[in-house]
Amino acid sequence: MNSLQQSLILSSFLAVFFTLPVLAADSAAGEQKASSCVSCHGQNGNSSSAQWPNLAAQQPTYLVNQLKTFKAGDRINIMMQSMTANLSNEDINNLAAYFSSQKPAKAGGDPALAKAGEAKAAMCLGCHGSTAQGNGQFPRLAGQHPKYLEQQLKAFKEGSRKGGPMQAITANLSEADFKALAAYFGSL
């Protein structure tokens, strides 16, 4: 068994383990807490700006992990570090339950680029789910803003964002690949 297979097995185990607290979370309490998220992430987690990601229908485990990473300062974003500083673990779980239960919107994407991206997307679907809906700790890509996805892929490639296999995957992708993949996932 190679290290990628071992990582995927471990990731699957951890996804199940870390999802358990989110399943017991209070979505209604999360909705109340989410009022401060709306100005960037949009009503019900559907952002109108490519600067901020859509949170609607995002994987709850992924949301919990990211909020905790921002809070701990392991993922750097001044606004998000400020927003998460006073959140309890219960607040984080409730926010994740709320946003993960919301109906997602399509962000769109250039149709020609999306067609090119579809041909390259298979390498992403093993972790991110067969329809890019996300999978435990791996985020939903479907319907995400293409520009946002491009920025994240660049950050992984440059190393300013850490993510295990993502550094290895993005190392062999061009900026044209980033644009095509982002357009495809945004169109789903």
From TrEMBL:
The keyword Lyase belongs to this UniProt entry's keyword annotation: no
The Cytochrome c domain, residue ranges: 25-103, 104-188
Annotated signal peptide: 1-24
Post-translational modification: Binds 2 heme c groups covalently per subunit.
Binding site for heme c 1: 37, 40-41, 80
Alphabetical UniProt keywords: Electron transport, Heme, Iron, Metal-binding, Periplasm, Signal, Transport
Subcellular location: Periplasm
InterPro entries found in the cross-reference section: Cyt_c-like_dom, Cyt_c-like_dom_sf, Cytochrome_c4-like, Cytochrome_c_Oxidase_Subunit
Residues engaged in binding heme c 2: 124, 127-128, 166
A GO CC annotation given for this chain: periplasmic space
GO MF annotation, one: electron transfer activity
PANTHER family: CBB3-TYPE CYTOCHROME C OXIDASE SUBUNIT FIXP (PTHR33751), CYTOCHROME C4 (PTHR33751:SF9)
Protein's name in the database: Cytochrome c
Species whose genome carries this gene: Candidatus Methylobacter titanis
